[in-house]
Amino acid sequence: MTGVHTIPAGQDLEVLMNAIRLGDIKAVREHLVIYKHHLNAIDIFDYSPIVLASLCGHYDILELLLSLGAKCDRDTFQGERAVYSALNDRIRNLLLKYDYSVSVNNKQPYATLLSSLLSKEVGCASLVGIVRPRPDGDMRLRPQGGGSELAAHTFVLIARSKYFRRLLESPGALHMDRLPIPVDTGTISAVLRRIYLIDSGDTAEQRDGLDISDLAAYFGLRFSSGLATDSELGKSGASKLTAAVETAQQDFLRLWDGYLSTPLRLARDETFSISRLSSRVKSLRPDVVLRVDSQLDGDGVYFYGAHRAMIQSDFICTAIRFKQEFQSSDPCGGMPVLVSIDVSPEIMEIILKWFYTDIVEIPPDMALELLQAADMLLIERLKSRACLLITTQDTDKLLTGELGYSVFDVARAGWLTGTFTKLDPFCAKFIANRLEWCLDDNVTRAQFEELIHESASRIQRREETDTIELIDDIRYYLNERFRMRFEALPAHMFSDELQDADQALQAPQEHTVEVLKTDGGEYVRLTTALDELLAKLGFDI
Amino acid sequence: MASKPGSGRIKIRAPRRGLANENMRFEDAWALLSEALQQIYERDASNLSFEELYRTAYKMVLKKHGDPLYNSVNDLVRTRLQRVTTTQLKPARPKFTLTSSAIERRESGNRFLAAVKQSWEDHQLCLGMITDILMYLDRVFCNDNKKPSIQVVGMVLFRDNVLRNRDYDIGADLNRVILEQIRMERDGDVIDRARIRSCIYMLEGLYETLDDREDQKLYLTRFEAEFLTASNEFYTDEARKLLEVCDAATYIERTNDRLIEEWERTQSTISTLTEPKIRAIVEKHLITDNIREVMQLETSGLNFMLDNDRYDQLRVLYHLVHRVDNSVNEIRRMLKDRVVHLGREINKGIYGFRKAPAPGEGQNGEAEDKSVNAETAMALRWVEDVLALKDKVDKIWEHSFSSDQGIQQTISKSFAEFINDNKRSPEYISLFVDENIKKGLKGKTEAEVDTVLDKAIVLFRYIQDKDVFERYYKKHLSKRLILGRSISNDVERAMIGKFKVEVGFSFTSKMEGMFKDMNVSQDLTTEYKKHLANLHLDTGPTIDLDIKVLTSTFWPWSSMSGETTHTCIYPPELEKIRASFQQFYLRRHNGRQLTWQPQMGTADIRATFKTRKYEINVATYAMVILLQFNDPNVESLSYNEIKTLTSIPESELVRHLQSLAVAPRSRVLLKSPMSRDVKPTDKFSFNGAFMSKQLKFKIGTVKGAGNKVETEKERKETEEKVDESRAHLIEAAIVRTMKARKSLKHGDLMLQITEQLSKRFMPDPSMIKKRVESLIEREYLERETADPNTYVYLA
């Protein structure tokens, strides 16, 4: 997370830091009882308490800080600094033990994306008024009693706050000028930080008017009123963040389901205009409209409103920039940019949903198409997710073609999309485990031969090895498949082999040698058949 | 119109697109793309469909057309750049004809720079758009095949087809134009810096190699060297010209301006990478090579600046020299020479003065007196002159030399050098302190007093023979104490405190002893008075006795009393009280010896003349003489009679008779014949008709009361004394060292001794040798038989 909270360098923090320097654990504990928000504060030297404790080598204090929930994930500057400046290995290991980015890191990129929005995308021009969405999709929050106004993304506020959802749906709302409640800039910005998943730990500060939890409640935020209340102080920072991210995901899922997943459908001959988008989508102030052409007969063209802030596709981002920089007559961008995407509406929706929620829930039969789309649109992280979906299945459907694609298509897709490091081992293992099928079934055998050819041609192009990678991998997994049986009896432990396993199970102990012979025979038969196949295809073995 | 996904809407899925199913001919796709790229180059990109172009390139990569696509794009860019070179840059090439005027040259240069800048910016813009469209090619094809990206190749193409075009050497032209423009600016013209800067940015953005190594920037490989060569030539010439026409002040100013100018150039016109290099060139030619000559310029160089307190010039000079030499040795060397020279000028005044009255010296007491008085004034002026010089140099040091530590050392060394040149400086400085403590401090605040004394301490620090100074200071201090001439004890003590800080306890212990004596004496006097009161003696007119008992080792005895022993026959009234005190003192301190020093004392007497009574303060001896005339029977006394009656040592007697009978204002005795000299045959009588304006006055002793410079004779004595005490110190040091080391080579011993003693004085090697010989004679040491160069300590 990038939003590091800098407490105005106060005397109080200095007291805590000095206690840490001196190794006075009692003073540290007492201080943190009163000033909980100092737990992750940063002093004028950019030290946070854990960095300092780590640097000075006070194991007990460090343990206390971590147990109270001090952040130490390596994705952050402070966390990384603490780990690197650790006085000794004992301290370092303690930090790594608490490092949640190792255990729960799959949530981290999404949280980082959200956090980065507040600092990067918001706050360009100044504007009077509270909740008046600007053309660029920012919303301005203005404290009642004056003070500097704050900007936030309209769609984020709508996703996360019941208050803003209602406000935008009621027509009179836009005339309001200030927040109707007494609250100051500091509190608003603290609540905004929490909306954007920036855990700044600033909870205990009492100000005039409403405090943070009051304002959060007023806004109808779905997270608990205090991230670091007394009961939760003991909770580890990791699980707190995970919970916060999950809540945010749910909020954005609702935004997706309720607003964005509804495209505008037009017939091919109709002309698109922004005004034709549904009012719910328009209320979110989309700055991008993605146009998808359905190729089903009678189906038309679909238009999805979206927000550039959430788009993680390098292609779409570049297209927007290209159009704004080189082609638009209105470079500041009052109007949403229209980008055509050459995928099916289903895939578009999967991708958009993933942009907003980080959730991919699709049947396996769409996984390969998703992988290709992600590759075309240059979305690296989604490619990994798609590969994961593909490689976690182990079903014969990959050979029967019931999924709409075969294991051979998977291998090819891996080569095309640059994901072969993930997909190749899967394919090789899959084929090795079903080599009988591939060699014996004529249709499958033809496809297999074609794949071997393609793999071989890849080698010529890359000139790195003089063997066929695919075959090497298959031989390896074939070996693995049978070696396991030789070494580790009883074989029923390895239930993925149907026939052989049954045999082993039924055979009495004294027949073990016989089983081995049978398995050995099968192994020899398969390798010989493979060699023959290669010889027939004209390769040296 | 809207439909929900995932609600079973899509049962029949669209056929997959993009991959194997679609067929695509490279020629068709490339036709589309190349058409678009041409449009981009024609600045007609607004109608292009980014998505379609991207997709086309994407499909070409998937269909394994990546290689031809990559090459075709590069060919297209290359052709384009060649055309640009021929059609836009070639016509703008400047003509470097010698006949053209400066303005023409500048204008044609500007046109060329503008054309280069324009072509570079166009190229960057178009390349950016091409890179966007071919993003998939870059990301996937180039990455997989380890080929340089379109962006990198685009830069290489620009380099090779524009700057290094086979037919027109645009790169060389560019260098030449830029250098020419910089030359113009150096000569005072105004040029378009921003335009040059954009061309420089271009050179910085292009590399010799594909991997963008920082040291392979074209700017560094192609331009910078030429620039530095040209600059080298320019500044060689510049230095010569400046030396020819400028005085030092102008030279320094110009150099400073040039340095600033070149720095600005690296910030605004060329790359900051060149900053250290061009700076080195200017520094070398304008400072390192020539500054010495500039500083030595007679009418305007460093000496002139020092003499005339040109703080600003000196400051600039210092900063210039400091650039090339952190320890500014050149300045230090010359500064030292100048300070020593000025110091010696001050010294010369003294010598000149001392030689002048030579004829009368030694024969005529009065003449000697006068010359001593004058020399005392001279001594004080010497100290003041030295201090004034120090002030002047310090101010320059502070204002112009950034309080440089090294220069401070140089200043100290210079002062030490000429101050120690003057053998009398310890005496002079002590006199200066004496003078200030006695007179000068009246009406000054404590802080001012402190400043003056601190100045004295600064000079004291420079003195090498601290023991000589100690001797003089003690002498002067003792007179001040005994005669009560000190204005304030606090000031005296502060001064001693300062000495203690400078050289340590051993230096001041005796002076502190003197102070202790004074205090003890005060108590003693009071007690004695009480003692007298207790005795209820009633013996005629009481004499108020103020006694000072001095510990003989603390006080500089010989210099106070001279060789002669001071005794006299006290008149009975005095003798009684003297005996009484002696008895009193010895009873209190059994076993001590009291020696009376009448020559140090003074007395207040009341004398009745014809007209009125006067209270006169006179020396003890003078009182004794006057008391001889108290007897009403005495009409007159001859010199010899007085001598017999008082047995005052002759020299003292002469002096006191002179002050009583010769000095016009205090002639309480009459002398016949009336002459300045006192001869044994002279007769003296009481001058009843004496009159004075004041009721209370003081008869000073001719020569003696105040601290003056020493006469030659005294000086010789002092020197002997100093040598004597040095001999002791050296012997002590030798014995101490040898006792610890048992055996030591001659050289080592000399070194050790010199080091140990140098804080107090610089021991003379021949003196050490003499002491060693003497110690060998007395069998403290012996020479080792095998090696006569080694001494052995004999227990």
TrEMBL record, chain A:
Q: Which GO terms describe its cellular component?
A: cytoplasm; ubiquitin ligase complex
Question: Which CDD domains does this UniProt record tie to the protein?
Answer: BTB_POZ_ZBTB_KLHL-like
Instruction: Tell me the superkingdom of the source.
Output: Eukaryota
Q: Which InterPro entries match?
A: ABTB1, Ankyrin_rpt-contain_sf, BTB/POZ_dom, SKP1/BTB/POZ_sf
Per UniProt, the keywords (alphabetical) are: ANK repeat, Repeat
Q: What is this protein called?
A: BTB domain-containing protein
Q: Which organism is it from?
A: Orbilia blumenaviensis
Q: Which stretch is the leader sequence?
A: none
Ranges for the BTB domain?
A: 137-196, 286-364
UniProtKB/TrEMBL annotation, chain B:
BP term (GO), one: ubiquitin-dependent protein catabolic process
Keyword presence, Cell inner membrane: no
Q: By its UniProt entry, which InterPro entries does this protein fall under? A: Cullin, Cullin-like_AB, Cullin_CS, Cullin_homology, Cullin_homology_sf, Cullin_N, Cullin_neddylation_domain, Cullin_repeat-like_dom_sf
**What Pfam family is a match for this entry?**
Cullin_AB
- At the top level, the lineage of the source is Eukaryota
Could you tell me which residue ranges the Cullin family profile domain spans? 424-661
Check the record and name the Gene3D superfamilies matching this protein.
Answer: Cullin Repeats, Cullin, Chain C, Domain 2, Winged helix-like DNA-binding domain superfamily/Winged helix DNA-binding domain
Give a yes or no for keyword Ubl conjugation in this entry. Answer: yes
Q: Which GO terms describe its cellular component?
A: cullin-RING ubiquitin ligase complex
What name is this protein filed under? Cullin-3
Organism listed in the record: Orbilia blumenaviensis
Q: Which gene encodes it?
A: CUL3
